């Protein structure tokens, strides 16, 4: 039996083929960008008016003029006008292109618009601070051609906005692999069905596929009964079709736990079976030419902790998402676990005033107690070579909830 870090190293040694696909930008937040985004125009692309008010020639004000006949209106979205009369002004709106033959914008708050005989004039009440004020000159944010988002970045709403600005309607992103999520067991019925007294509903496949959704991955769900020939036949098709197969159940010592044996018969090489951990000891992992196979123990908390301790971090790595260091959290209380196993302790996590993550155990009733997961936020990984864990000590944290 191997330890947790060895299991994790073996998994991380396996690469998943990640291809590229082009998607509508509205579908790409959280995905990995597979192209670089450069500016197709200067930013801003024109001398942009930053305040509602009037545009003047500063020289005129300097020469003592304070009343400016209004010659017209330059709206945002209107083509550039050029002021005719020297000594006039143009009314301008925020976001408009600066009219020709003007160089300074004065806000409405600092002028008064008056009706004088036949003309409208603007009377300056507060002297402009400097020539060019309230104008955002063309190209001063960034010049055309500037690289704004690198290949390999995780797309946040910021990059989506930049992509939209440069007119990218579609973006090249990493194509997430096809995944089969398979529950196994004769006792499991579809969740829409009322279970008989000896049956339960299949929850694991939904937990796993919900976790995968966080990575924009869509899973196809399957169920296999504990029947050797059924498993054998259906796994043939599934292994042919899917690059990633995640099973739950059927990997322990039970008489009907056929999964490991059949997987090996199908040419899926066993890379390990059983890890010194609780929960999730019977975890099986293997690989064939076409597929990577995680066969997780069926108890819901085992499935869950294996999913967040191994499957999700590995997938993030394959997709290029995981660049940060391992999260750590401090225990808030002393805790004892004396078995020679790594213990995944369910914890509620709080971030204290100094920004430090504090983890408090939320005691459940073992690996079948999935309802207890709703009370926590993640798992703290307590190493196998230690029995007593003291308040204030930090351990790796695997979160399943955004804090
Ligand atoms: P197994 O790993 O197949 O021996 O299953 C261990 C325990 O987990 C049994 O009590 C199963 O009924 C339960 N179990 C297995 N798969 C699921 C599932 N998909 N949803 C809920 N419970 C499950
Ligand atoms: Mg079973």
Q: Could you tell me which ligands this complex binds, including any ions or cofactors?
A: adenosine monophosphate, magnesium ion
What is the domain total for the residues?
A: 4
- Please give the alpha-carbon distance between the first and last residues: 34 Å
CATH topology of the largest domain: Molybdenum Cofactor Biosythetic Enzyme, Chain A
Proportion of residues in extended strands: 25-35%
Tell me which oligomeric state these chains represent. single chain
Tertiary shape = elongated
- Mean of the pLDDT scores? 96
| Strand order in the sheet with the most strands | 7-4-6-5-9-8
The level-1 CATH class of the largest domain: Alpha Beta
Structural class of the helix and strand makeup? Answer: alpha/beta
The H-level CATH homologous superfamily of the largest domain, spelled out, is MoaB/Mog-like domain
Please provide the count of β strands. 28
Helix content: 10-25%
The parts where pLDDT drops under 50 for at least 5 residues are none
User: What Rg do the Cα atoms give?
Assistant: 32 Å
Q: Helix tally?
A: 7
């Amino acid at each position: 039996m191997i330890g947790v870090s060895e299991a994790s190293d073996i998994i991380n040694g396996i690469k998943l083929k990640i291809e590229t696909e082009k998607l509508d930008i509205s579908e790409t937040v959280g995905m990995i960008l597979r192209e670089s985004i450069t500016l197709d125009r200067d930013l801003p692309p024109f001398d942009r008016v930053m305040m509602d008010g009037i545009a003047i020639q500063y020289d005129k004000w300097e020469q003592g003029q304070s009343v400016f006949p209004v010659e017209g209106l330059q709206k945002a979205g209107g083509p550039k006008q050029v002021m005719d009369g020297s000594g006039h002004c143009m009314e301008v709106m925020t976001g408009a292109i600066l009219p020709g033959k003007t160089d300074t914008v004065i806000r409405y708050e600092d002028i008064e618009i008056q009706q004088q005989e036949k003309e409208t004039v603007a009377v300056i009440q507060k002297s402009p601070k400097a020539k060019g004020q309230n104008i955002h000159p063309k190209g001063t944010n960034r010049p055309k051609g500037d690289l704004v988002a690198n290949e390999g970045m995780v797309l946040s709403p910021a990059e989506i906005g930049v992509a939209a600005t440069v007119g990218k309607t579609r973006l090249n992103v990493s194509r997430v692999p096809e995944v089969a999520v398979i529950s196994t067991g004769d006792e499991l019925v579809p969740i829409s069905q009322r279970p008989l007294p000896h049956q339960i509903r299949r929850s694991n496949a939904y937990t796993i596929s919900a976790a995968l959704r966080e990575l924009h991955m869509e899973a196809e769900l399957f169920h296999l009964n504990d029947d050797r020939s059924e498993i054998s036949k259906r796994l043939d098709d599934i292994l042919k079709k899917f690059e990633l197969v995640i099973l739950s159940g059927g990997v322990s010592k039970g008489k009907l736990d056929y999964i490991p044996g059949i997987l090996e018969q199908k040419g899926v090489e066993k890379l390990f079976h059983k890890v010194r951990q609780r929960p999730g000891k019977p975890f099986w992992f293997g690989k064939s030419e076409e597929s990577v196979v995680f066969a997780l123990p069926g108890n819901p908390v085992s499935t869950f902790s294996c999913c967040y301790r191994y499957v999700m971090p590995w997938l993030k790595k394959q997709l290029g998402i995981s660049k940060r260091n391992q999260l750590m959290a401090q225990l808030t209380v002393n805790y004892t676990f004396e078995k020679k196993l790594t213990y995944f302790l369910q914890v509620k996590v709080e971030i204290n005033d100094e920004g430090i993550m504090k983890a408090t155990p939320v005691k459940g009733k073992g690996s079948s107690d999935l309802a207890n997961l709703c009370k926590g936020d993640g798992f703290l990984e307590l190493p196998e070579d230690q029995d007593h864990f003291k308040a204030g000590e930090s351990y790796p944290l695997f979160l399943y909830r955004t804090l």
